[in-house]
Amino acid sequence: MAKKKNNKPLLSPATKLGMIALLIPIAITVYVLTFFAWKELQTLPIFEKLVQQKAIEEIQQHFDMKIPEQYIPVYVAAEEKYGVPWTLLAAHHRIETRFSTVKSMVSSAGAEGHMQVRP
Q: Which of 55, 56, 89, 104 would you call most buried, defined as having the most Cβ atoms within 10 angstroms of its Cβ?
């Protein structure tokens, strides 16, 4: 003889609604706290350095030769002081002296130095 199955639900509809009503604010709270924690973590120096490194790698793709790492802080400092985009300075340095790799740092027109500026 087959046993009759008990089709009684484990939770009543009122209990289910109560759990949903409780879980929605908890989920929103967890999401908001996670969002602010992530924003705060992004201000750590390691994250800032990773973002800066990624930006530099993206910029490097547009140059036919890699920008020497030692010049980037100089370009960035000049950008902050004079308002000239550091990428423009790097491009100028690349065109004029191939990032200071040419033998003579004096042009036939009399321009001198790393950026070939006339005295």
A: 89
